[in-house]
Design a protein that fits this description.
Number of helices: 10
Distance between the termini: 65 Å
Order of helices and strands: HHHHHHHHHH
Number of domains: 2
Strand content: under 5%
Helix content: over 70%
Keywords: Signal
Structural class: mainly alpha
Protein name: Tetratricopeptide repeat-containing protein
Length: 214
């Protein structure tokens, strides 16, 4: 009887899982995650951002499309000739919306810090003193939420590198964080397959920080 109950429970679990899965959502996310890898222009970036926003509208319970839209708005502010504050303000609004869906999520918290770091980079002299502690706090929280998140460590290493240059101090802390982040990226790569839609970005940025330590 116990064996039958276990079998029935597993069967119901399988049926529930199949019922809850959404191939249309997963396929749409895979398509745009792949499209992100080939972005070369602002127009392409905006097209993929808009696609993620449409997915977010269709699936309001999912945080990941909002996260990627925020990521693209943030990277656009770094990469292209745009109104940087405007793009970063839009990114922050998207991050805060994602935060309400997934509370205490390491990836979202790190992304929030990334947006703040972008705001600092526009005018480090006037914004650094007031905003740097906020960015560092967010990266620290993201690390504590998930010790296996390489992006949290990588972003912290970039922040430490920038602060070391600004204050004329040594790069040791930034270098150590970057090397630890690269170890986590190596671990992450063993889990990533064709259908993987969770964040994997940032390895190149960690390599840049680590490379400056040689």
């Amino acid at each position: 009887m116990k064996k039958l109950s276990t079998t029935l429970a597993l069967a119901f679990a399988f049926i529930f899982s199949a019922f809850c899965s959404d191939p249309a959502y997963e396929n749409a996310m895979k398509k745009q995650v792949n499209a992100m890898k080939t972005i070369r222009t602002l127009e392409e970036s905006q097209a993929v951002t808009n696609a993620f926003l449409r997915i977010a509208e269709a699936k309001p319970e999912e945080w990941l499309p909002l996260y990627y839209a925020a990521y693209l708005q943030t990277t656009a502010a770094f990469r292209f000739d745009v109104s940087k504050d405007q793009y970063l303000d839009q990114a922050m609004a998207l991050v805060e919306k994602a935060e309400k869906i997934a509370v205490d999520n390491s990836e979202i918290t790190a992304m929030k810090g990334y947006v703040v770091m972008g705001k600092i980079s526009i005018d480090p002299a006037s914004r650094g003193q007031s905003m740097s502690p906020q960015a560092m706090q967010l990266f620290g929280k993201a690390i504590n939420l998930d010790r296996e998140n390489p992006r949290a460590l990588m972003l912290m290493s970039q922040m430490e590198q920038g602060m070391a240059r600004f204050f004329g101090s040594g790069p040791e802390k930034a270098c150590g964080l970057a090397r630890n982040a690269l170890d986590l990226y190596a671990k992450e790569e063993t889990k990533v397959g064709e259908d993987y839609i969770l964040p994997t970005w940032g390895k190149g940025q960690a390599e840049q920080v680590a490379g400056a330590c040689k």
